[in-house]
Automatic annotation (TrEMBL):
This is glycine oxidase. InterPro entries: FAD-dep_OxRdtase, FAD/NAD-bd_sf, Gly_oxidase_ThiO. Pathway: Cofactor biosynthesis; thiamine diphosphate biosynthesis. Keywords: Oxidoreductase, Thiamine biosynthesis. It is an enzyme of class 1 (oxidoreductase). It comes from the Bacteria. The keyword Zinc does not apply. It comes from Actinomadura barringtoniae. Residues 3-348 form the FAD dependent oxidoreductase domain. It catalyses: glycine + O2 + H2O = glyoxylate + H2O2 + NH4(+).
Length: 377
């Protein structure tokens, strides 16, 4: 079976690897692999903290994906000899003031209502785990099974593993889906055309930009900007991923073994704007310093802004579209890295075996009504 995947972000890369492992002949089309949201993402594996009430199916998907990570990474690292920076030593969510603590208590009740135990910590217990936390921190929740991974290591490892299984990377922009007799039969790129049995559209926020899509096939994607800062430390500063609520404002810090600390993120609906702004960085530093006053001593390394691909209901859209031959792997919004292993399994299952695995069924494209689709361009 010949499959063309439009987009070599984390979802396209992982699906290429998984589909090739099932015997498919896969081509990835992307002028600059892993350069979009994947390159900016911090890589938190914290399924609880990214969902809200009413998003239980998404939480279940996130938990399933988090639990697949160790085996997924073990296979990938064994195949490529590359380290992906996976950490499974738990994450901390802390509250700065009493209102923040009230929110955290609501989160704990929500977790418990779903049968997920949370370890409740006092401020002192939080500081025992993370001594650099401010004395003001009121309390927290410890999630022992959560962790993080470094997307900038994961993506090249996935590409190397995919290429070792025969996946081809075409460094060109896909301009159109080729449609014949009401079915997708391939992709047009800047350099020519390629035919395929199946086409997977996994181009993140840009998924609506490809020509040839009939109306009602791809739900409208909404780019949601996130500004992220990278700092560096030579001395131990933060042991584990720490999320905080500071006077109602969310912040997270993700430390890596090499001393990098990723601080994120703004959430801005500004269309395709990836400018880094003084105000965005100020908000991140302001909240990070409230939680960890010593943070201003760390070396500044990088700032960047990425576009999270948001679907109409903020959940991923995975599986066969209304156009025969065209599959969608889009809309991973705030959860792309977390959802990588499960999405790759769901999409490779749908593409190669022709069935969407059980865990992916709430996320198939047919859940949307007509007004949530883009008009053909
Ligand atoms: N999942 C983190 C973010 O989207 O900022």
């Amino acid at each position: 079976m010949e499959i063309v995947i439009i987009g070599a972000g984390i979802i396209g890369l992982a699906t290429a690897w998984r589909a090739a492992a099932r015997g498919a002949d896969v081509t990835l089309v992307d002028p600059d692999p892993a350069s979009g949201a994947t390159a900016v993402a911090a890589g938190m594996l914290t399924p609880i903290s990214e969902v809200t009430y009413g998003e239980e199916p998404l939480l279940r998907l996130g938990l399933a994906s988090r639990d697949r990570y160790p085996a997924f990474v073990a296979e990938l690292e064994a195949q490529t000899g590359r380290d992906t920076g996976l950490r499974t030593d738990g994450t901390l969510e802390v509250a700065f003031d009493s209102d923040d603590l009230g929110y955290l208590d609501d989160l704990r009740r929500f977790q418990e209502s779903l049968g997920i135990a949370a370890e409740v910590l006092t401020g002192r217990e939080c500081r025992k785990l993370e001594p650099m936390l401010a004395p003001a921190v009121r309390g927290g929740l410890f999630a022992p099974q959560d962790g993080s991974i470094d997307p900038r290591r994961l993506a090249p490892a996935l590409l190397a593993a995919a290429e070792a299984l025969g996946v081809r990377l075409v460094r060109e922009r896909a301009t159109a889906i080729l449609v014949e007799h009401d079915a997708a039969v391939g992709v047009r790129t800047e350099g020519g055309e390629m035919r395929a049995d199946k086409v997977l559209l996994a181009a993140g926020s840009w998924s609506g930009d490809v020509e040839g899509l009939p109306p009602g096939v791809v739900p409208a994607m909404r780019p949601v900007k996130g500004q992220v800062m990278r700092l560096r430390t030579k001395i131990p500063f933060l042991q584990r991923t720490t999320r905080g609520l500071v006077k109602g404002s969310p912040i997270y810090l993700v430390p890596r073994a090499d001393g990098e600390i990723v601080v994120g993120a703004t959430q801005e609906e500004m269309g395709f704007d990836t400018r880094v702004t003084a105000g965005g960085l100020w908000e991140l530093l302001r909240d990070a310093r409230e939680l960890l006053p010593g943070i201003t001593e760390l070396e500044f390394a990088e700032v960047s802004a990425g576009l999270r691909p948001g679907s109409p209901d903020n959940a991923p859209v995975m599986g066969p579209s209304a156009l025969p031959g065209l599959y969608l792997g889009i809309g991973h919004f705030r959860n792309g890295i977390l959802l990588t292993p499960v999405s790759a399994d769901v999409l490779a299952g749908a593409l190669v075996d022709g069935t969407v695995p059980e865990v992916g069924r709430p996320f198939t494209p047919d859940r949307f009504g007509a007004n949530e689709f883009e008009v053909t361009k």
